[in-house]
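Why does residue order matter? Because the sequence determines the fold. Keep that principle in mind as you read this record.
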Amino acid sequence: MTTLRVAVLGLGYVGIPLVGACIKAGHSVLGFDTDDRVVANLNGGLSHVDDVASVEISSWVSQGFIATSDASTLTDIDVFIICVPTPLSDDGSPDLSAVRAASLTVAAQLDAARKPLVVLESTTYPGTTEEIVKPILESRGAIAKADFCLAFSPERIDPGNKEWDFQNTPKIVGGLTESCTDRAVEFYLTVTTEVVRTKGLKEAEMAKLLENTYRHVNIALVNELAKISHLLDIDFWDVIAAAETKPYGFQAFRPGPGVGGHCIPIDPNYLGHRVRTELGQSVRFVELAQEINASMPAYVVHRTEQLLRSDGKSLAGADILLLGVTYKANIGDQRESPAFGVARELRKAGAQVRFHDPLVESWIVDEESVPKMHDLASASAQATCSILLQAHDCYREPTALLGARLLLNTQGHIQLLSAGEGTNWMNL
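Structure:
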């Protein structure tokens, strides 16, 4: 295998696992990020990503990995991979400023003599790679196909997943041309076990949006059915357990306090934006799913208020303890966590909010720090009501939540545990 000089632009939850895979494959890797703190920590052997330990970063550094915020050092590169964030603007439209900036950085360092491969991995709407990235890369005189190959390969990182990682998850690849796809497939086969070709760039871009919109819509479905089941006096968690025994034609999704993370709350907006601007139409399923999932934090507070009222208490002035404020179990990532919406709604209702989460050192909601409780037993016993938002392993222990006086469970797993004699609890 030929050793390639690879530059990974964007050293977050997507870029860091990619760096590790490239180093493991024997490539020479240079990491670029505009955050000087991230760069300094990585060069010092410190990780900021849940699934990558600091000892691994230290090993990479000892093997020659360098992180930098100096774009001028990105020279003699064979493969540029852009893994920068693609968040939403304040008005809900796609914010591609980081993609544009990274593309400009690559354009300044393209070496036509090496005919490098440039890959965009950042999630975006169909057409971005060809309509935005390509013109920027060609702005300094380089010509796609002749001077560089261009491809899109959507990231499929699932933080906290112990079974599927970067190396064994099939990699989707679509190129500007067949030869560009060939070049990208050849590269990714050095770092992954399976590569799936698409017809072109747009198909690869759309595949990522399909994956996450599928989850978004199905989560919204069970969230709405959970609300309806409560009104009909039906245990919806029991319904799901029964339905998922069907060996075909059904995949279980579970209700919760909302959707979070860097994909599900964001990606459907990219699809909706493209459809509105290009076709003047709406994606009705997507918009309805967004409406339902966005309503869940307020519904959590509504159910909390019902629980308090059943115990003769009021939400105004109540001391509410939030358990697990990350967007996913057993990881420390807070991005787009529904816990933010729950905290806002609780504050709006006049409640005092505290939190417990062993994976989060500090938590700030709307520029106001939320007090952290370190001792779970005493914190849940003192709180007027506890709300289980995220099913970290520590909350699954048989006696973990037995001290809670009132407990709203948004995760369902507590049905497997023994409730304390003095605990009044209910499911979402």
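The longest strand covers residues 5-9.
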